[in-house]
């Protein structure tokens, strides 16, 4: 890309992402839910020094594993073993009043997908909502993201029939950003998508419980590649956005999932794997690229999944929602950082053969008094 046009783009992106940070979250009616009680074993540690993880454990077939105990887990912070402050096993088949609430948020992206792809999304999503006679296992809400006005369902529901009828009322027509082609069209979609994601996260932060946010999209433009250079000021700005989004996703207890509606039409292309080059946490401003802010990267780093190369979107949705069937909630004390926004990688394993644990992959630690 010509450096002059790249410089103009970065100026545009800096101003728009700053505007996004100052934009209030969608004005929605709060959904009722009882606050989750903090485990007593962690009460001695201030809340801002605790890192809480929602951990999925699966066997070789991908099925959730129940019945594990705290001693079955090993938790590492930057490869150093950590004491687990609190531990809770959540099982949907034996739910209790003390279990954290879990909700599903379905986001239909009509900005980054073609009209044909959105039409197919509608069909597959309605199949999911209407199965089992429209009786949903979890409270579910629906968001349709478009450049002509994002439609947000104000209250969650277990009534799939009602949600399907509501979806039919939402318009997902031709995108205005389609009229701005090439580089500047990509810049518009990047800015609009990031602003929308951060707004949703801000809204979810004060609400208790876990949220499985399933985003139907091929993802917004990665806008990264060779010969791209940023100034120090630009690098610092992008780094600040990454740190803020990482912390907000964790504090909101959002597990993010990316489902590519292009399915087999996108299979084999480099675009669906390029994001993997950016999965490692950004440790400093001088290592930032715009692709570090991509949907797929946020999904993996939140403990979620990236699903593509399948035309069966209904099954893909069910695979994401199944994470609520059984999972574990653990916490540990955040490291005391030597500097602000010090990145720490998280690894969690299960000390039993054939099992895989999936959770948030890192956090940004802050200095604090001992």
Structure report:
The chain is an alpha/beta fold and 370 residues long. The chain has a domain at 99-324: Rossmann fold, CATH 3.40.50. Helices cover 30% and strands 23% of the residues. The protein has eight helices and 15 strands. Strands 5, 6, 7, 8, 9, 10 and 11 form a seven-stranded mixed beta sheet that branches. A four-stranded antiparallel beta sheet has the order 4-12-1-14, with no helix packed on it. The protein has a four-stranded antiparallel beta sheet with strand order 3-2-13-15. α1 (3-22) packs parallel to α4 (182-204), α1 runs parallel beside α5 (232-252) and α4 packs parallel to α5. The protein is globular, with a radius of gyration of 20 Å.
Short description:
This protein is α/β, with parallel strands linked by helices and 370 residues long.
Layout of secondary structure:
Blueprint lengths: L2 H20 L27 E9 L14 E5 L2 E2 L4 E6 L10 E8 L5 H16 L4 E11 L5 E2 L4 E3 H10 L12 H23 L5 E7 L15 H21 L1 E6 L11 H4 L20 H7 L4 E2 L5 H9 L4 E8 L8 E9 L5 E3 L3 E4 L5
Helix pairs in contact: 1-4, 1-5, 2-3, 2-8, 4-5
């Amino acid at each position: 890309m010509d450096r002059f046009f790249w410089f103009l783009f970065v100026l545009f992106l800096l101003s728009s992402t700053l505007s996004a940070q100052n934009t209030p979250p969608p004005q929605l009616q709060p959904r009722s839910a009882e606050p989750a009680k903090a485990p007593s074993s962690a009460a001695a540690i201030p809340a801002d020094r605790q890192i809480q993880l929602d951990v999925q454990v699966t066997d070789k077939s991908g099925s959730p594993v129940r019945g594990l105990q705290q001693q079955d887990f090993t938790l590492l912070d930057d490869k150093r073993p950590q004491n687990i402050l609190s531990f809770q096993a959540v099982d949907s088949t034996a739910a209790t009043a003390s279990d954290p609430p879990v909700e599903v948020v379905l986001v239909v992206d009509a900005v980054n997908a073609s009209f044909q792809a959105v039409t197919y999304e509608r069909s597959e999503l309605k199949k999911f909502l209407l199965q089992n006679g429209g009786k949903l296992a979890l409270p579910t809400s629906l968001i349709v993201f478009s450049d002509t006005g994002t439609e947000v369902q104000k209250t969650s529901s277990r009534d799939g029939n009602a949600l399907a009828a509501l979806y039919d009322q939402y318009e997902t027509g031709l995108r205005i950003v389609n009229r701005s082609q090439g580089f500047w069209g990509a810049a518009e979609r990047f800015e609009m998508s990031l602003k929308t994601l951060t707004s949703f996260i801000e809204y979810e932060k004060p609400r208790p419980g876990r949220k499985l946010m399933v985003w139907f999209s091929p993802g917004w433009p990665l806008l990264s590649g060779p010969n791209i250079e940023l100034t120090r000021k630009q690098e610092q700005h992008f780094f600040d956005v990454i740190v803020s989004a990482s912390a907000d996703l964790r504090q909101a207890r959002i597990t993010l999932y990316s489902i590519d509606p292009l399915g087999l039409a996108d299979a084999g292309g480099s675009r669906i794997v390029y994001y993997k080059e950016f999965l490692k946490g950004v440790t400093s401003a001088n290592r930032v690229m715009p692709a570090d802010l991509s949907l797929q990267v946020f999904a993996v780093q939140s403990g979620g999944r990236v699903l593509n190369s399948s035309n069966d979107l209904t099954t893909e949705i069910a695979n994401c929602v199944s994470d609520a069937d059984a999972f574990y909630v653990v916490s540990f004390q955040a490291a005391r950082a030597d500097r602000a926004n010090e990145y720490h990688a998280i690894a969690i394993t299960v000390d039993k053969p054939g099992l895989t644990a999936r959770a948030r992959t890192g956090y940004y630690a802050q200095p604090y008094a001992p």
